[in-house]
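Chain X:
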Amino acid sequence: MQGYLNLAKLVLSQGRHRVSSVQGVGNVVYSGHELRFRPAVEFPLVTTKSLKVSWKAIVAELLWFLSGSDDTKELHKNNVHLWDAWATKKICDQYGLPEGKLGRIYGPQWRTWRGVNGKIVDQISNVIEEIKTRPDSKRMMVTSWNPAEVDDVFIAPCHGIFKFVVAEGVIDLCMMQRSADLPIGVPFNIASYSLLLLMVSQVTGLTPGTFSHYLTDIHVYDDQIDLLREQILREPRTLPRVALNPAVKNIFDFKLDDFTLENYDPYPSIKYPVGV
């Protein structure tokens, strides 16, 4: 994943500094960049820091999104606590939510988008059906960004505006990310949407092609910079492969143990501070 490291170098060398942020820490920001991956050939899980421990969380989070849930207790069933810091009682009280709930972010927007006249739209089911029945369509798109509801949650969706493109039996996925925490969030997002492409290709009977990742506000917090410089010095290793249970034919039937990470040999992990 030399492209990821090249982006890190670009941000640190050409980015501009913002003195503060909602997280209370300054950051270096660079705007506009594309990364491209072929997940079926080489699965883009970064090797310059270990995500072995995080692999289960990456899969569980994606399945959680696809289920339509916003309840962190569902993640806890798999001992995944990625979202706990944003679902405390104090934060939930501010937004009139039960403790542990995040409100209408990824899962609810993907599966129960609130349309006009009370219409509920299941964007994931719709896009799968469109891929199967009208593969030449240019409307195979899902969005988690709902302007009417982004102020009703503590953390607005950072990613999740994505589109599938099908031609000659090959399916590609393009995703636009509005806010990209380069050291922590972006490696998760790359792996998650690469996995989504493999899943959708399997259930639609298409060949997985390219995942194109468009990042807009790409940032590194001040307290992450030295650690990222350390990571940049590491030579990328051979990327792993991911195998899916071939028996699964419905996007909503995938389980945690339907995914196998093969031949992953990363460097030791790097403990980056997380902004809340």
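Chain Y:
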Amino acid sequence: MTNAPLSVQLYTVRSAIADDLPGTLARVAEIGYTQVEPYSFVERVDEYAEHLPANGLTAPSAHVKLIGSDLEPIFAAAKRLGVTTIIDPHIDETRWITREDVEGIAKELGEIADKAAAHDLRVGYHNHAFELENKIDGVPALEVFAAALPANVVLEVDTYWVEVGGVDAAELLARLGDKVQFLHIKDGPKNFDDKKQVAVGRGDMPVRDILRAARQALPVVELDDHEGDIFTALADSLDYLEGVRA
């Protein structure tokens, strides 16, 4: 394993961010995280620009809708925050049915990546479950997509949604190889009930196997929802991951 820093997707603490972004970043840093993955960062770029460095945090990646968006403000905000990879977090399920549609998505992201490269930015895509559930000639749509991706687009594989989608996450990661540069690491009963997600290491996910299968990728902790205290869950997740990655 590796002991490189872990990141955390800030959507996990979205309620706290809505009330107090500076205080939330401070709590994340106090827990021990040194890297974060912001979302909706363009709208709050001034706050992030002030409070990320104030708390010793960096943001190597960030989520933002890319396809169909005005790209220049996104590029400018990412550069200001030191983000190097901008990741489209969701493309509508209706576009993942046919090979033509899936390859079209790959082409669009490649064109965006060409524009991003002029700003020294990289482009990525983050999956949900439907890209695995939908099959094209018997192959999960995400794998068809990955095969069509140009070299300048990377993947952030949400390993929980891969398993919910019926595919073994570790085996998928082995097949995708270095195209995967980020992992979303979450845990729970592997179903669609977000509130049943738990601290990493306390659910049914094969976390150790996943980490071994993609040593090159940055693990990003994320819980879509949680019934307990979310900051406690983040602390417990960090403790577990630091232990298994030591």
